[in-house]
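The following record pairs a protein chain with its ligand, manganese (II) ion.
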Amino acid sequence: MLRSDLVDRSNDAHEAAHRADFRALSARLDRQGINASGVVDALAAFQVAVPSWALGTGGTRFGRFPGTGEPRDVFEKMDDIAVIHSLTRATPRVSLHIPWDEPRDPAALRDHAAALGLGFDAVNSNTFQDQSAQAHSYKFGSFSNADPGVRQQAIEHNLHVVEVGKTLGSKAITVWLADGTSFPGQQPLRKGFERVLDGLRVVYDALPDDWQIFTEHKPYEPAFYSTVVQDWGSSYLLASSLGDKASCLVDLGHHLPNTNIELVVARLIGAGRLGGFHFNDSSYGDDDLTTGSIRPYRLFLVFNELVEAAVERVPGFKPAYMIDQSHNLKDPIEDLLQTVDALQTAYAQALLVDRAGLQAAQEANDVLMAERALQTAFRTDVQPLVAEARLRLGGAIDPVAAFRASGYRARVAAERETSGGYVPPQAL
Ligand code: PSV
Ligand code: MN
């Protein structure tokens, strides 16, 4: 964790300007009939889980350029996540990838995390790579494989992940499958899906009552002709066939170009099956870029659906918010600080939408005023609201500035470099 006096020192430098900005924005929102303090309260309740795999430099299939002072093991990753949490006060949970970040002693990891004020969100299984000492290969798929031995191995891996998750205090497992084909005729299209469903039923039946399973779809990659769980419809079919504890996870990068993601989100909310998110952004495919860095309006429109569902108290609506990014160029901690800020920004903008005005315009088919209700909110500079939420929780007005001033990276670099540095798992 960062010492609180370091956060305080940074806040002292920014506080006067922040106060003036917050006062000015509060007055402006007041004129719109919006209570700034109420928005800040809602923002302060926002939390998002940090993925264990995002603390080291990711890399692409063409190479990896490591940064200095990367965590060497999952315990040091917890230390870095605690730093992010002390600055944002919005990341008290970790989403763990197994086996990439599997601890030898899960209880020790749980205790280490708890001592830092952290807990665990959904655990992620991995049947998209072969692991050492594993009997069968996933080269031709896992749950959908023609070989029952491979399918059984994939099931057992997921059961193991649930067991680890139970010790950590997780309450959910996210299953993303790379299963698919790259050539027509390679595998039967219908049968692959049935096999996945059969395998997931075994995992589902083993879940504790208070657990959930999230099915995560992706249209292509590594399979380039067909993917078994390729779209939200397939994901929905799986979740609805499995039962009430199953729902769909939307990774913002897992859509074909030009897909209307907010519409996917709306459909899943309507069907009562929106389980959660993997936040990131993309230009071309599953680029895993910083959330909100490419299409901030789209991110806002997604949050607009989420806020609308919350306002309408849609039954059972409680999506899990997680990040899934690969940090290749920026310092991973700084990138994640920027990510949390982008999420809070989109959420704040969505909270500012004049819902009654929007609804009235929609009912009257007043296209311009309906669109303007969204644009007015999106075009508001909400930074003072987001900073105020952090400040009230004891976080930093400007997390990146506070992080840089703290000298944390240089300090851990000196400690961590001595043993050769950490080599993260292959980036995906
Ligand atoms: C697959 O591309 C994915 O989005 C899944 O969530 C994996 O668990 C994760 O990325 C691995 O980085
Ligand atoms: Mn993902």
